Amino acid sequence: MPTSTFDYLNEELERLRKEGMYRLPTVWTSASGPWMETGGRKLLQLSSNNYLGFTGHPDIQAAAIEAINRYGAGSGSVRTITGTLDIHDELERELADFKGTEAALVFQSGFTTNQGALSSLLGPDELVISDELNHASIIDGIRLTKAARAIYPHKDMDRLEQLLKENGGRKRTFIVTDGVFSMDGDIAPLPAIVDLAEAYGAYVYVDDAHASGVLGRNGKGSTDHFNLHGRVHVQVGTLSKAVGVVGGYVAGADVLKRYLIHKGRPFLFSTSHPPAVAAACLAAIRLLRKSQPLIDRLWDNATFFRTRLQEEGFDTGGSETPIIPVLIGQPDKTADFSRQLMEEGIYAQGIVYPTVAMDKGRVRCIVTAAHSKDDLSFAVEKIVAVGKRTGVLKG
Fold it and tell me: Beta-carbon neighbour count of residue 304 at 10 Å?
């Protein structure tokens, strides 16, 4: 018998359970979609990032199957050794053209994209200034560096300018922001950030994970949404949400791509995407070019759902995208609210500390283009019922 045990881990898990922060993944027995099955029950899915319903699109599925038949199941190695296939190269060319940049480089996930790009670009001579509500992958990517760092309060442009003034003298300064903030569903003030960057000679780095396929013409992202082409130095996107597959990418100058090929550790030390993944992503990007009606439906659904919740008296925070939080409060109350929704046939996960502030727990709802108005009306009805039962809605 080993002399050491993991009892201390059980103690920590028990603490999380008591405080409403313990959660294991739900196991689904159906494909991702507006309605999904678990444990023999069908639930309305309000937690998925499958914004446009692309995960089940027949053209994307067909592309994946064709790639398996042509290339096999895997790529064989990391891309700098033997793992780059023409389908990987074609995907990156398509992404660059779609984003309006010179080049793009694909990573295995959105998380590793931020880790690889930030850890490569930021060194001891750099300063990085980051919004306080940026995604965990940005936070961890910055932690991997020896760069000087500063945090500005969420979307506070006065404080950002103050930090730019106070921290002069560094060789380079990078301002890093989400395009759409994943927990609140609000949009970064990118024009103001770009103006400040240009005034103080800084670089702009935007993570468009929740803006890809959502903001801009045909879902080109926040740079296109604000018509800032040529003024954002690093655009990070995901292939895992609206695109419907998996992966992440950096879009920007060709020199940036070539530099990251040599310096981005997740790229250098991870086997490349299976051909089926690359082909499916390529098919999805091509679909985005003709999917504006679908994106319009996504926004119409989001406005309908958010307005209905607000009319019922719920606090949806600063949401202005298909990410629509229902603010609850403490972790235990949030977990209970989410659990009761599940009993009513709604799957909407509670988001609690440390992902958000201790008193800002919320059930984060994500509306998709695949939802019908009847689906969303059903969801509002059940959320209202649970809100009254739990006292979240007064009167």
Answer: 16
Contact 134, 207 (CB under 8 A): yes
Chain position carrying tokens 């001579």? 125
Please indicate whether residue 88 is annotated as part of the active site: no
Residue of 88, 241, 257, 360 with catalytic role: 241
Phi and psi based region of residue 230 (left: phi greater than 0; alpha: psi -120 to 50; beta: remaining): left
pLDDT tens, position by position, 148-192 = 999 999 999 999 999 999 976 789 999 999 999 999 999 999 999
Active site includes 18?
Answer: no
Q: In what order do the strands lie in the sheet with 346-347?
A: 35-38, 41-45, 346-347
Do residues 117 and 250 make contact, with C-beta atoms less than 8 angstroms apart? yes
Please state whether the predicted TM-score (pTM) of the whole model is above 0.70.
yes
> Who's near 206: CB < 8 A, 6+ residues apart?
176, 177, 178, 179, 188, 190, 221, 222, 223, 232, 234, 235, 236
Q: Are 131 and 176 in contact (CB under 8 A)?
A: yes
Q: Is 394 a catalytic residue?
A: no
pLDDT at 3 over 80: no
Q: 39-67, pLDDT tens digit by residue?
A: 999 999 999 999 999 999 999 999 999 99
Which of the following is catalytic: 99, 135, 155, 210? 210
Output the pLDDT for position 2: 62
Sheet holding 323-329, edge to edge: 323-329, 361-366, 350-351
- Report residue 371 as tokens: 């939802």
Query: What count of other Cβ atoms lies within 10 Å of the Cβ of residue 134?
Result: 21
Distance of alpha carbon 138 from its chain centroid, rounded?
Answer: 11
Q: Are 346 and 387 in contact (CB under 8 A)?
A: no
Tokens, residue 312: 């019922």
Partners of 174 in beta bridges = 128, 203
Residue type, 350: G
Catalytic residue among 48, 75, 182, 222: 182
H-only helix segments in the chain? 7-18, 58-71, 86-99, 110-121, 136-143, 157-166, 190-200, 222-225, 254-263, 265-268, 275-288, 292-312, 331-343, 373-390
